[in-house]
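Page 42, continued from yesterday. The earlier attempt failed because a stray header line got pasted into the input along with the sequence. Redoing it now with the clean sequence only.
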Amino acid sequence: QSALAYPLLVLSAGIVTVFILFSFFLPRIASLFSNFTDIPFVTRLLLNIANFFSRTWHWIILIGVLIALIVKRLITYEKGKYIFESFKLQLPVLGKFVWYSEIIRFVRTLALSLESGIPMEKALKLAGDVLGISTLKKEIQRISLNTVSEGRPLSYGLKESNFFPPLVANMIAVGEESGHLERLLVEVAEYYEKRLEQQTRIVSSLLEPLLILIVGAVVGFIVAAMLMPLFKLSTLL
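This time it went through. Structure tokens are written below.
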């Protein structure tokens, strides 16, 4: 996930830069074109957007802060937290990262607990407590209560669950049958760690140049739109 830090930083810097340009810089130089009778459409559109931002930038910031505070408040409630977590997991890229991270955290903690001699029920509780997704925590509690506490293997409950990939349940089943559950849990964690690292590298390698290209295109468009009237004027002289 740290590999995504730079692309996200580029995106944030680009958004802030464009916001400052439209809100403060472009409106100030718009007066240069006040005497122009025939402004190109692209330039006129750009100036209209800049004028809108210059009049409403404080409202945009205020609304953004209010939305952030409302979301932060809503996720303190169980229903709001469930909606937010479901939305996060449904995101095309971020959702997979969150899901892989939760699986890794769960199996790593479970393996460490079992290696320390902690009984399965308590180990499941410890593994569930480290998860960040409340829905997944409840699912672990349900599996512990309805499966493990009744003497059935953990893999049975995982296979019935819709929250865990079949690979996790199958690997745990092999570990239970062979008596090497802790080692198989570690292998599951390592497998998903490799997948997470691979996905992160791919997304980072694609996202970074794409963001730079988008930011460059926006800035280039702004510069071109501001220069077009000057070029047009020079052809008339």
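Notes: The two ends are 56 Å apart (CA to CA).
Reminder to self: strip header lines before submitting.
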